[in-house]
Design goal:
This protein is mostly helical and 166 residues long. It is built from 7 helices and no strands.
Length: 166
């Protein structure tokens, strides 16, 4: 079960859609802080793929504290995260929370896949904005280049398995 986010600075709770959109970030950070990610899963984490600054920071800290086996060293990661004002509150909350997943490895894979899809969707949106601007300004060469990038990203996105809805 997912845990709700705390109220924001205005005392409002984030929408269900917002919690679902960011849940993979919180879940991956929770798994990271509990040492439940395999070395391969840790290797697949890309801090820049995280949209929530506190999650991104915890991942940056985690991937900078790896053991010889490629897994996150929990104590140094948690110590550094708790000392960092950007992510201390979230690190404390997630390190103390007890979440249950039916299949930890599968859940981590699904979260990583959703994060990749989000990153691709964002990149596609940015490319389309640049493409439209180049078209309006009559920069034909750049239009062709951007069209190729958009098509390549669409093909890659189409090749990804459907995003799990859970």
């Amino acid at each position: 079960p997912k845990e709700g986010k705390k109220p924001d600075s205005q005392g409002l709770r984030p929408s269900v859609e917002s919690r679902q959109r960011d849940s993979e970030e919180h879940d991956l950070v929770h798994l990271l802080l509990h040492g439940l990610l395999s070395a391969a899963q840790v290797g697949a984490l890309r801090p820049e793929a995280f949209t929530l600054p506190a999650c991104r920071r915890i991942v940056e800290i985690g991937v900078s504290h790896l053991g010889e086996d490629g897994r996150v060293l929990l104590r140094p990661t948690l110590d550094a995260a708790l000392a960092d004002p950007q992510c201390a509150a979230l690190a404390a909350e997630l390190s103390l929370s007890d979440r249950h997943y039916d299949d930890v490895s599968q859940h981590a894979r699904e979260c990583l896949m959703r994060l990749e899809r989000k990153r691709d969707e964002q990149a596609l949106g940015e490319l389309i904005v640049r493409l439209r601007k180049a078209e309006q300004e009559g920069r034909t060469e750049e239009v062709h280049k951007l069209n190729a990038e958009v098509n390549e990203l669409r093909v890659r996105k189409a090749a990804l398995p459907a995003a799990p809805t859970a």
